[in-house]
Amino acid sequence: MRVPATAFEGIEGGLDPAVELRIAHDSARALVHRVRESDDPDLVERMVAYTDEHGLDTLAELWARASARSLPGALWRLSLLRALIRQDPLGTSLLFQRGSEVLATADVVVAGAESPTGPEEIRVLADQVLHGAYVGDFAIALERAASFCRTASAGAADLADDADAAVDDVRAVELTSRASRLATSAEDFAACARLERRGSLD
User: Fold this and answer.
1) Tally of domains in the chain
2) Cα–Cα 20 to 30 A to 112, which of 94, 98, 146, 161?
3) Does 45 reside within a domain?
């Protein structure tokens, strides 16, 4: 039986928060280095597919409480972003496609999704971005995630305007909230990318 991490929060005698934080950082660093240094070509695929098989529970226990602008926080949010995309590839691709139509920046190109962007293209993009955490330039993977979030945020905001015009208040509020969350994620991913380029993402 899977028990959510929140079920353990009220239990006395748990780990000191400082120890939990150290474990989060140490495990994230060890995992990334191990995968990057491995000669096993299937290891990256297994890591990317880990949450498909086991869910996000284990990663949440390790990394979810870490700062958004840290290595474990970035890995957690990349995994979470991929899981959310895979849960709703059609809805996510609609946000991204709309964002690509209204956003006058290079974010669509940086994100790297094929155009037009449908459910399959958005699933491929999610896998590619998470791959980048373990192979290639991690900063580029984080920048792609930031660009994806900025584009999808713009799409959600534009669709929220449409819902406002159609007097669909519930849909407008939902999309506005989603746009805000995506914009915040974009800022965090971009900040992590800058830290990674300076060699100080830990």
Assistant:
1) 1
2) 161
3) yes
